[in-house]
Amino acid sequence: MNLTLVSVKAFESKTDTKIMTTKARSTDAFALSFNASRLMPAFTTIYALNHPVLGKFDLFMTLRKCDDGALFYDAVVNHAL
Question: From 3, 30, 60, 77, which residue has the greatest number of CB atoms within 10 Å?
Answer without folding.
Answer: 77
